Amino acid sequence: MQIVYLEKLRNFSLEHADSRKSLSAWKTVVENAQWKNKQDVLKAFPKAKIIKNNRARFEILHNNYRLIAHIDYIDTILEIRFIGTHNEYDKIDPETI
After folding, report:
1. Considering the entire predicted model, what is its pTM?
2. DSSP conformational letter for 17
3. Which of 5, 24, 36, 42 might form a disulfide with 80, Cβ 3.0–4.6 angstroms?
């Protein structure tokens, strides 16, 4: 998968140094993935949650942080829409962000 908006990950990891290793591992898995459907996402990340509008929520660093991505299975593009703490996550609508 091609990841769009990687700078969001870089900026977040600068503010939250404890997330760097988990984000790096997540990025490696996604870049090497060839997801064709939601089930493929869940095989790679069993704790992920599939959300409406082709979005998925990923747990980062044992669910200390959450990442929302829009996945285009046809063009194999994953667009990072949000990464943040639980408090920040509670203030957004993951289906529309």
Report:
1. 0.94
2. G
3. 5
DSSP 8-state class, residue 18 = G
What is the extent of the structural domain holding 50?
2-89
Coil, helix or strand for 27? Answer: helix
In a domain, 95, yes or no: no
CB of 68 closer than 8 Å to CB of 82 = yes
Q: Which residue has the tokens 């503010």?
A: 15
Q: Tell me, what CATH number does 22's domain have? A: 3.30.2310.20
Tokens encoding 96? 């529309």
Q: ∠33-20-23 over CA atoms, to 5°?
A: 20
How many domains, the chain?
A: 1
* Six-digit token string for 77: 């593009």
Could you report the per-residue pLDDT of 22-55, keeping only the tens digit for each?
999 999 999 999 999 999 999 999 999 999 999 9
Structure-token pair, residue 55: 């979005």
* Count of Cβ atoms closer than 10 Å to residue 66 Cβ: 20
